[in-house]
Amino acid sequence: MNTEHLFFDLDHTLWDFERNSKICLEAIMDKEKQMLPTDFDIEIFLQHFSVINAGLWRELDENRITHAYLRQVRFQRVLAAMNIEISDEFSLNLNQHFLDTLPHQHHLMDDAFDVLEYLHPKYRLHILSNGYLEIQRKKMHSGGILHFFENIFTIDNAGYKKPEKAFFEFALNEIKTAPENCIMIGDNLLTDIEGAQNAGIATIYFNPELEVTDAENINQLLALKAIL
Question: Is the confidence at residue 166, as pLDDT, over 70?
Answer without folding.
Answer: yes
